[in-house]
Design goal:
By secondary structure, the protein is mainly beta. The chain is built from four helices and 61 strands.
């Protein structure tokens, strides 16, 4: 039989859908029909393709018929023509998928059937030596990738195939040669491709002779993602700015024990991956990833080499950090060690929350997207980019109390309708973030599934325990952030982010996700050190230490049943339990009324200790209030507001009862003193107290009554004043409510005012000088012959004429005005005494 040597170039188009590493695409390798003579039968070897992405549509694995290497005139096609042949003849829904900027793997397994004459092998550059001898498969196969509308792209990327392994099947009759490559397309495009050419010696079944064939493989792609390169500076125009609320980057939980602390040590750095997505409906079903970047002077861009940073320091030199963001990850780097403050709060209640808020620039850029509903389509769309604005950050170091205070402050801003809609919305957004922070913190502290750092142990008084742990995070942590766009924001951006109309602008929401720990160049792991110590004799802690799932830092859990604490109280059994009682009643309040002026109000108290196992020291004191300066208080033999310390046996009271005397300090002091608080408390933690209340009232006489025989007189005319003061009180008259000099004394006096005057009577005794009582105002005027009144009055006045008064003016509140004429008073249109004023008209003169 005549040996037959054939050399042919065949185009293979490979496409598949939803290929995973467990799926393979089977494609036959054989000569095209135009190269097969009648009666010939060619061997069918096979390529199995394994990839990490899928096809555009979900129509299952598809095998496309082999392409042509010749046109209708039997002219060989150029490689560019072959690429276009595949791209144009392949339905787009069967293109392979890729994402811009993300590398993926392709594996090609060549299954070659051994023959009687030759063992097949990959020989890309061979085929000219005949007859062939058995050879080794090529170690690599040259290839290139390309994308439409990108100049010289094929000349820039050469993702060659590399031989990975060779195996045999069917008793050695089938050789499996595998090649792999890693591929990445930089930009989104409707059409992209991967191309390689290989040669193969095969057995011609008809003639049983070797045949050499060459094949070109073209794999078409749709590449999802940006149609630009965001990592280059300034490709995206800035459309506007929003303010991102303060969100913690890191939390240090404080441990129990009045000498305990947790330290994030100097030269440590903790990094986490981060991402953000738009929430386009309330059910959170609609999501769109947001590209995170940096705002430059002329636009937005993404760069892993650019660090947005802000330095924050604790007050009083308690540490400082450098917080950084590259748009893909956040890092907290410790410049000076940060520690929790010993003994300032119960475990996990005095934690330090570290973070910052910043301005965010936003813009939009074109992308290629694959829609799957209602039908499969590849479209040009747009995506959102957020860029941190360098220099705009406001750092914070907060405790839980600081956060609660900030919530109150922002609530006041939100409820103040005079603030702008933007200010009010930002305040509301910050409140929502803090509520999420505190809720997540509480959930993490109480999570029974948290990883255990240290099993339960006991820490007694005077004992110390120091440990270091590695901080790492393996879970994600998500916050929902509400943003405000003013009315001037672009309509296209508002639509893209799903903005909904609110007062003064638009609201849209994003989900900010912080991911797992990321290794960094500064250190391979982050160390948190903690020291546990309590020096209060008798204190004992049962402690379990777990890991915070959100921040990877230690959380300190107290077994309440096996813990005893005091000074300060930090959970468990409360060793300080003072009890203050009023002798003669089981109530915690006493009324002491109608006390004779000049004598003290008196009652007795008893001091007790509710601790069932040990004696405790407490102090007895008075809680000052607004009128405390008017009081002189004596208790247990001491005067002032503190009355000494008492050691009280366990579960009992002191045998002696103690007198409490409450006296008025001055004759002018008040006579009623409600809710006077007395307390029995612990000196180191005054909030632990037992209180009783006394309502004290002194028997004061009723206030004086005052009258004047005339309240409108001519200058120098006499006025008789009368007052009724209690027995044994001196009656003095003044022209001012407080201070001043005595102008007259006695129950009935005569005065001669020369101007409008209010007289005050003071009823005064040795033990009691109550507030003065005012008379009605005495109006003083000088008579004219005729008065024509046109000016309005807003203050007190007395107008008198010997004959007539004509008026068309107005009298306004709170003026008190009297008109008096000898013959007549005429009120023309326009005259009016307004509501709230006091007006009187009379006929008469100075003497009547």
């Amino acid at each position: 039989m005549k040996a037959n040597y054939t050399k042919a170039l065949t185009l293979i188009s490979i496409l598949f859908f939803q290929i995973s590493f467990a799926q393979q695409l089977k494609i036959p390798i054989k000569l095209p029909p135009n190269l097969v003579r009648p009666g010939e039968f060619l061997p069918v070897d096979t390529i199995y393709v394994t990839g990490s992405n899928g096809n555009v549509a979900s129509s299952g694995i598809q095998i496309i018929p082999l392409g042509r290497t010749q046109d209708e005139n039997y002219n060989y096609l150029t490689q560019e023509q072959m690429i276009q042949e595949v791209l144009n003849s392949t339905p787009q829904e069967k293109y392979l998928k890729a994402k811009s900027g993300e590398a993926f793997n392709l594996t090609f397994a060549f299954k070659l059937q051994a023959g009687n004459y030759i063992s097949p092998y990959i020989d890309t550059n061979g085929g000219y030596q005949y007859p062939p001898t058995s050879g080794n498969d090529d170690q690599s196969i040259q290839a290139y990738a390309g994308q439409e509308d990108i100049t010289n792209y094929p000349n820039q990327i050469y993702p060659q195939l590399s031989l990975s392994n060779t195996t045999y099947e069917n008793g050695g009759n089938t050789k499996v040669v595998s090649y792999t490559t890693s591929l990445k397309f930089n930009m989104g495009r409707f059409k992209s491709w991967y191309v390689f050419t290989f040669g193969l010696w095969q057995r011609d079944e008809f003639y049983n002779v070797p045949r050499y064939n060459k094949y070109s493989v073209v794999i078409p792609f749709v590449v999802e993602g940006p149609m630009i390169t965001p990592s280059q500076a300034n490709p995206v125009a800035i459309k506007g700015y929003i303010r991102e609320p303060a969100i913690p980057q890191f939390i240090l939980h404080n441990p129990p024990g009045d000498m305990s602390s947790v330290t994030f040590q100097t030269n440590q750095e903790a990094c986490r991956s981060m991402s953000e997505s738009l929430t386009t409906d309330e059910t959170n079903n609609g999501k769109l990833d947001v590209t995170l970047g940096i705002a430059g002077s002329a636009g937005l861009f993404v760069s892993v080499n650019y660090e947005f940073s802000v330095t924050a320091s604790l007050s009083g030199g308690g540490g400082s950090t450098l917080m950084k963001s590259s748009g893909k990850q956040n890092c907290v780097s410790v410049l000076n060690a940060i520690s929790t403050v010993p003994g300032n709060a119960r475990a996990n209640e005095g934690s330090i929350y570290i973070g910052y808020s910043s301005d965010i620039a936003y813009g939009m850029f074109p992308i290629i997207a694959i829609n799957t509903t209602p039908t499969v389509s590849v479209v040009r769309d747009s995506s959102v980019i957020f860029g941190l604005v360098p220099g705009s950050a406001t750092p914070f170091y907060y405790t839980k109390n600081d956060i609660l205070n900030d919530i109150s402050l922002n609530r006041a801003i939100m409820n103040n309708m005079s603030n702008t809609p933007k200010m009010r919305h930002q305040a509301q957004s910050q409140i929502k973030i803090w509520e999420q922070v505190l809720k997540k913190d509480s959930t993490n502290i109480n999570d029974p599934t948290s990883p255990v750092i240290e099993a339960p142990f006991t820490l007694g008084s005077g004992q110390s325990r120091t440990t270091s742990v590695t901080q790492s995070i393996s879970t994600t942590d998500t916050y929902e952030v509400s943003h405000f766009l003013e009315l001037g924001a672009g309509v296209s951006f508002v639509v893209k982010v799903g903005g909904s109309g609110v007062a003064g602008g638009y609201e849209f929401k994003t989900k900010k996700t912080r991911g797992a720990s990321v290794s960094n160049s500064n250190n391979s792991s982050t160390t948190i050190a903690y020291t546990l110590q309590d020096n209060d004799a008798g204190d004992s802690f049962r402690i379990k230490i777990v890991k915070d799932k959100s921040y990877g830092t230690p959380i300190f859990l107290i077994d309440e049943a096996l813990t005893r604490t005091s000074c300060p109280y930090e959970g468990g059994y409360q060793r300080d339990q003072p009890r203050l009682e009023i002798v003669g009643t089981s109530q915690n309040a006493i009324n002491v009324q109608n006390v004779t002026l000049g004598t003290p109000a008196s009652f007795q108290v008893r001091v007790c200790n509710n601790n069932t196992t040990e004696a405790r020291d407490y102090r007895l004191g008075f809680v000052a209030q607004s009128n405390s300066s008017d009081l002189l208080i004596t208790a247990a033999g001491s005067t002032g507001s503190e009355f000494g310390a008492f050691t009280i046996p366990a579960n009992s009271c002191r045998i002696q009862n103690y007198d409490v005397n409450v006296s008025r300090r001055y004759p002018t002091s008040d006579v009623n003193f409600p809710n006077l608080e007395f307390r029995l408390y612990t000196e180191c933690e005054p909030a632990i107290k037992s209180s009783i209340f006394a309502n004290v009232g002194y028997a004061a006489p009723p206030p004086a009554t005052v009258s004047a025989n005339n309240t409108a007189v001519c200058a120098g005319s006499p006025v008789t004043l009368t007052a009724s003061c209690p027995f044994n009180y001196t009656t003095n008259w003044y022209t001012s409510f407080t201070g001043g000099i005595v102008v007259a004394s006695g129950g009935t006096v005569t005065v001669n005012p020369t101007s409008n005057t209010v007289y005050y009577v003071g009823c005064e005794s040795l033990n009691h000088v109550p507030a003065r009582v005012a008379s009605k105002i005495v109006l003083v005027g000088s008579p004219s012959t005729v008065l024509n009144l046109t000016s309005n009055y807003i203050s007190d006045s007395f107008q008198i004429a010997n004959t007539t008064i004509t008026a068309n003016n107005k009298i306004f509140s709170p003026a008190s005005v009297t008109y008096k004429a000898g013959n007549s008073l005429t009120f023309n249109p326009g005259f009016e005494a307004k509501s709230g004023s006091n007006f009187m008209a009379r006929i008469g003169g100075c003497g009547n």
